[in-house]
Amino acid sequence: MQQSPRAGRQGDVLAVVSQTGPTVSFFDAASDQHLGTVDILAEPHELCFDPTQRLLWCASAYHSGYYHANSGRRTQLTVIDPDTRRVVEVVDIAPEHGPHGLALDAARGRLYVSVEGSADRPGGVVVIDTQTRRPIGRIDTDAPGPHWFAIDAAGTTGYATNKEAPFVSVVDLEKGVLTAKAEVPGSEGLAVSPDGAYAYVAAPYAAFSGPADGEPPATGIRVVDGRTASVTGLLPTDGTVIPVHLTSTGKLLAGELRMAPDPASELGRHAPGRLTVFSAATHERLGELEVGLCPLTITSSPDGRIGYVSSILSSTVDIVDLETLERLARLDIPRRGESGAHGLAYVPRPA
């Protein structure tokens, strides 16, 4: 008899950001029971769990609004104890602003945070010491709006996607310098293979504007060779991909934005999104599943058995059995405006 994907998850916790909450909610990973909620600074976006310090980091990008349509960029990161569910500290990284993407090198105790540029400096990545919780460096990425950031398992190479810039910034984390630009249409989420050989990049980016001039680029996931910083393949999708996640079992998860015709709008209206699953090794399309409106973040359990897809416009989290591609549950995340569920983090129980 096949073991339930829920088995053995007692004490594990799923943390979920509500962008207009503004909150982080905690759910029991075995039962989906709501355990509590922490109020945080406005416009929280992404989450990152540090298992060494047992702390959650949350980036708040703006005072209100969103990318290119906001009332000002924030400079803060909130540090949360997921066990006691309380705010430990608010870390100010000023003059850096617009923090968004988070990537952890637990072995070296480094947290990498993508930040937006200004009139006198391009966007970049701030390096934070996770023990002192203070910035210790910055790496320029030569683009105004680096958004998502991911690193290889060795902690030597990082990749920043750039919404409008036609490249992914490749940086040497040991030297702290930009080393290459992988040419792609403006990009969204990304994931890096464990051996660092490939980066999987969602491109083109979701412009949320009228039709572009000329033939639009094919939607999907660009496969970037880490050695040459060149695109070597395309995993095609029907809709624009925003989040990308690679599980511990080698499944590549893509969250597709889908639109339906609407006579009242040139852009159409949001339709249920799609979780599309590929094999990272073979690039084979393994299946798909309908999810909420505008999927924005994806994560998975450490064993790669369960996937979690947050959709910001429906403010839901779909919990998916990644072996059968069946929905196990859907969580409704509280919100105060149009934007709801965003960042996700899986927090294993204390050893």
TrEMBL record:
* InterPro entries for the chain: Host-pathogen_enzymatic-act, N2O_reductase_N, WD40/YVTN_repeat-like_dom_sf
Signal peptide start and end residues: none
Q: What is this protein called?
A: Surface layer protein
From which organism does this entry originate? Streptomyces mashuensis
